[in-house]
Amino acid sequence: MKRIFTISGLMLLFLFSIDAAFAQNVTVKGKVTDATTGESLIGVSVQVKGTTTGTQTDVNGTFTINATGTATLTFAYIGYAPQAVLVGSQTTINVALKAQANELAQVVVVGYGTQRKLDVTGSVATVKGAEISKQASTNALSGLQGKVAGVQVTNGGSPGASPSITIRGLGTVYGNVSPLYVVDGVWYSDISFLNPQDIESVSILKDASSTAIYGIRAANGVILIGTKRGVKGKPVINYNGYAGWQSVTNQVKMANATEYATAINELYTSNNQSPLIFSNPSSYGKGTDWYGLVLRDAFVTSHQVSLSGGTDKYTYNYSFGYLDQDGIAKTNNYQRFNVKLSNDFKPTKALKFGYTANGLLGKSKDVNGSIFHQLFGAAPTLPVRYADGNYGDPNDYHTGDGNNYNPQATLDFTNQRSKNLRFTYNGYGEVNFLKNFKFRTSFGGDIGQAESRGYTPIYQATLAQKSLVSNLDVNHTETRNWIWENTLTYDVKIKDHKITALLGYSAQNNRDKQLDAHAQGVPYASSGNQHNSFPDTAKVTYYATPGSQVHTRALSQFARANYSFKDKYLLNASIRRDGASQFYGDHTFGYFPSVGAGWVITNEGFMKDQKLFSNLKLRGSWGKVGNSVVPINPSIQVVSSDPYLTAIFGNPQTAYPGASINSLVPPTIVWEKAVATDFGLEGGFLDNRLTFEADYYNRETQDAIFAIPIAGSLGTNNSSLIGNQASIRNRGTEFLISWKDQATKDFSYSISANLGINNNKVLSVLSGANPIYDGGAGIANGALATRTVVGEPIGEFYGYKVTGIFQTPAEVAASKQTSAQPGDFIYQDTNKDGILDSRDRVVLGSPLPKYNYGINTSFTYKSFDLALDFQGVADVSVYNANIAYRFGNENFTKDFYDHRWHGAGTSNTYPSVNVGSTANAAPNSFYVESGAYFRMRNAQLGYTLPSILSKKWGLSKIRLYANAQNALNFFGYKGFTPEVGGSVGSMGIDASVYPLYATYNFGVNVTF
Q1: Which of 36, 81, 642, 841 is the most buried (most CB within 10 A)?
Q2: Sign (positive/negative) of CA torsion 398, 401, 403, 409?
Q3: Residues of the chain whose pLDDT is less than 50?
Q4: Whole-angstrom Cα distance, residue 805 to residue 902?
Q5: Which residue from 798, 797, 794, 799 is spatially nearest to 759, judged by alpha carbons?
């Protein structure tokens, strides 16, 4: 018996010893990787289950944590299935996480927080920062092109230019058409200050349920951008840089000197002018290729260095970026310097605070805005310079005023430089209390100063290109904006019920100031034109800029509630009350409600045993949003005095100046509002390797601000009345389908395609059927090429329909166009009244694309990676104003020269060289071409060096890559590019826009 007790005691002592050993804290290290690709996962949450002890993996996927042997470590990461591991006697734990089979469990960023994708009842698209940074785009927004259904991105060719973005169609004419950008919680009108390499993620909120929480600025959609933050771990330095060149694609070929001389002689003959300018056209040969002289392969380089790391108490992320981009026109250049600083501090479990600051310095050497029109029209018979070194003078060749310029002289004597300084900031604080509550306050702002200075010296290059006095023109703009927001969040789960409620309060202040000035008699400075102030001897004129002196304030309260029952039935509701200083009286405040609902069908019991769907969710939403960025104070009556209003009376005669009302305005104007509904279905097959989303939306802009025509007898200078007098509808569907697969151990790939279909229509205007005409850029005699009218899209092209070309005088005599001549357009008598006049004009097309689509692919094989992105638009038109943008003897394109009418039977589609005449230059179907295109938006091939080699050099990772952007383009448009932007009403009119280009570069990404 004694022996039995002795053995029992020894066993208990042994067990107690083991328990004591396991109860002691040990240091556990390890690495977390992707189970499929083997790549390190950064920022994985590693938690000791049941405690507050936790950490995150660093940039190499490694972690260190203290835990007892009896503890269980949980590993959680967005998009991956969680995993739990018992520590036991292990001091090294390596974990391979598998991609989350149910994508509905992923977390997406929404207004003022995050939600599981399962809980989202609206239309929200997410693009990772890595997808944007893989492109050669100098602006982050360009990287969105072709990535998201329903989002149209229109790029410009000028260095440093920001693209324009339209989400789900155009819903305004006089208001701001751009979406709201929210970067780290702060509101912005543009994000040109951001380096694409600093972006962590982008969320595009497209429907009213998602955007209504932003109230007065959400009518055109909302784009949420989160920048990179620090991650706990040792300091990590990352460098990403590339260098390459940009080349014009699809360059327009112009007629050479012999062809030009031939054409001008034909023009003189057509107009019964004599003598002919060119007695022997063939003697001029090919002449001067002006495009070849001025356009170039432009150098571009970009470099970014970041430093990140941190501890349990604080993290940091600092970065510096530099961009140097030459324009494709010689002398044009843009430089950008970016600095980003961010810190997050967590002194206690319940308290967290931090800040983000961005600095931008942008400098550019600009080109004359008319240079591309000059290159198009310049006479190839004109030499750049004569043998004595003087500029070739068009007057020596008697080619008239239309092309009385030497583009090289324009380039040489253009001295304009622009500078942009910008500082954006945001500081925040969060405190968690009473278990389920979190209070957050943030204050951020935007301080900017932009200035352009153009200097013209005393010079004489040609008879027409000269200046007898030196001039200095200055444009100076200052921006001072701030926003203060406070939110209280309540988050609780009670059995099968999950509730998240949000209350918020916001205050904003926005101020813009502008100064325009002109000075004569300014001496040449060493920097060319960058005087810090006007010299005392200069004659300075300051221009009034009332529309640019803007000061607005807003005060807002908002609330939102999300409810989920058993992860099957979802409900979301929000409301925002906004007050804005640009309105007054009963219209000062607006209310913007929304509601959304969802049904996760695959979580129903009757779907339990089915094998077809990995997930399936049906959702719907309704909401109202606003657009407060409308013309400021349009209700103030403006009166002006002009010389032609002067009356002369008496003897001796005395002049009495008169005045006139500029325009009539309504007593008050309110913000535009958009009411929208959205229905969506999303799901996945085959363990979510195949996923899809489909949406139908209907958005109606109410109280849209229009300028309707009024009778000239009312005595105003402006023949229109501005007010809330229209409604506009955008209706469409969107589709997204994706396939992801790990084909073998070494090979994985993904393919996704998206399509957006939009129909834009003006539903009603206070003036009824009276149209609004616009779009006169590059059109002869002030003719207008677009109109906006009830029942049609905004800014559609409108003009005469060409049915052929007059071949003989007899055809002209027998027609309704008796003033025409052979070689002129034959216009259709649309209304069959026997008279050809403006009532015969018809709709010629729309600059608003009906179809936007993109195809995005990625492939990984061992250490190689390849990304191919394609993008295009269809059912859209472009107005090629360049052809008839003529004032004399401008050049012709080779296409026009080869196909022109130059005698009976030579052409029944192209007119004669007299295309610039009043009748032929009138807006008509000949100038409207298809704007559809398909392009390889981006192609990038990368290779990651073996880790053994990089570690040998003391580096964590080295990746080399080659990139090509817009290298392949397919379209039928006869200009440089059919991707033509413009303001509302003039959209899609190509009057010598800055050409787009392809970019080729080579780069390296190094992690230290």
Answers
A1: 841
A2: positive
A3: 1-22, 528-529
A4: 11
A5: 794
